[in-house]
Amino acid sequence: MHRTRSSAVRLIGVVAGLIAVVASCGGDERVVVFAASSLTDVFERLELEFEAAHPDVDVIVNVAGSSSLVAQLADGAPVDVLVTADQDTMATAVASTTMAGDPVVLARNELVIVVERGNPLAIGSLDDLSDDVVVVLAAPDVPAGAYSRAVLACAGVDVDPASLEQSVRSVAAKVALGEADAGLVYRTDVSDDLDAVELPDACQVTADYPIVVVVDAPAARRFVEFATGSAGADALSDEGFVLP
Q1: Which residues contact 227 (CB under 8 A, 6 or more apart)?
Q2: If phi over 0 gives left and psi between -120 and 50 gives alpha, with beta otherwise, what is residue 160?
Q3: For 199-237, how does the pLDDT look when each residue is reduced to its tens digit (9 = 90+)?
Q4: Pick from 237, 94, 102, 114: which is nearest to 181 by CA?
Q5: What does pTM read for this prediction?
Q6: For the purposes of burial, counting CB atoms within 10 Å of the CB of 174, is it exposed (0-12), middle (13-18) or buried (19 or more)?
Q7: Of 31, 132, 137, 198, which has the fewest beta carbons less than 10 angstroms from its beta carbon?
Q8: Of 71, 36, 100, 78, which is closest to residue 236 (Cα–Cα)?
Q9: How far apart are the first and last CA of the chain?
């Protein structure tokens, strides 16, 4: 479902209110991090580890589809650090907002076909997605959606998705809940109740995750250094991301 303008504004208000509440609860500094939804587990871990190492800093992580994050940033949401799931979305952010630094690639990822545990429909390739299969994809303006369409076009497969989701996590969730038979997600989004079907090498894509300091503040720069250093590398590797 596509988010309306009014709902996006309400979301920004909720995020800003949450930031204000959390910031008032303690800590001399705060770092507001907007991160692509596929990085949820990684940044939940980095938030805890960074705060343990820097008890004077509150880290507030907001995860959503990259396009939604960039829209919130353009609309004035307070953001100190931004991480997107592709270079194009980051380029849009850089074009609309003055950044305090240049984006650098934090991690890389790949796509897989995700199916219910046990693969009951025996889906084995992209060609199978054009049969009588309920498929969900990320929306075209979401990086995973753009990647998915590139993969399907490469394979010459025509898919009529049952829904277009605003984050790749929502695609995985619909398949896990049995609301869809298959979807295209990042390899790192395959949970224990799902199975992955590999894509052909000829049509595989590499998803880059650039990170940038938005606001020139010491705490924001320290967090990016932390995320791009050994702590970030460990968290990313444990979740299956490829390091650049």
Answers
A1: 46, 81, 83, 106, 211
A2: beta
A3: 999 999 999 999 999 999 999 999 999 999 999 999 999
A4: 114
A5: 0.82
A6: buried
A7: 132
A8: 36
A9: 33
